[in-house]
């Protein structure tokens, strides 16, 4: 019985830790999104997509693969690629072997934007994280550190 109670308490602590990390990720992503929009007219997700495309062989990924790597569903990534295309940062290309396959391909303008925005975004992220308590008073920095540790321990 005691073991069950300890396991239940441990599971609850992990759930609380995960909730704390979700709040952290949401707050930081929102701040980064706002800042990137103001500074570079792209969202954090658009920048992540450009980075993934830039790192891929031939600077392209199937839309389904991009969805998996970025953590979105296929229809969300289709809209994402539409936005990148409208901004002249990426384009679609049909798979020569499979007419149903669609690739997202980074364009030169996307590469240039990535080269400018990535270092600036990294510096802004570091600044945000170093000033966590001041920027997000609703997040307890100590609780966030403990949450990182708790979830890290569960991961192994």
Distance between the termini: 26 Å
Based on secondary structure, the structural category is: mainly alpha
Task: Give the strand content.
Answer: 5-15%
Rg (C-alpha, Å) = 19 Å
Question: What is the number of strand segments?
Answer: 3
The overall pLDDT average reads 90
Count, helices: 7
Largest sheet strand order: 1-3-2
Biggest β-sheet description: 3 strands, antiparallel
Report the uncertain regions: 4-9
Helix and strand run: HHEHHEEHHH
The proportion of residues forming helix, as a percent range, comes to: over 70%
Per the principal axes of the C-alpha atoms, what is the gross shape?
globular
Main features:
mainly alpha; 73% helix; 3 strands; 156 residues; 7 helices
Give me the secondary-structure topology.
Blueprint: H1 2-40, H2 44-55, E1 60-62, H3 63-70, H4 74-86, E2 90-94, E3 102-106, H5 108-130, H6 132-135, H7 141-155
Antiparallel strand pairs: 1-3, 2-3
Helix pairs in contact: 1-5, 1-7, 2-5, 3-4
Task: Write up what this structure looks like.
Strand 2 and strand 3 form a beta hairpin. The chain has 156 residues and is mainly alpha-helical. The two termini are 26 Å apart. About 4% of the residues have low confidence. The chain has a three-stranded antiparallel β-sheet. Helix 1 packs across helix 7 and helix 2 crosses helix 5. The protein is built from seven helices and three strands, in the order ααβααββααα.
In short:
By secondary structure, the protein is mainly α. Helix content is 73%, strand content 8%. Strands 1-3-2 form a 3-stranded antiparallel β-sheet.
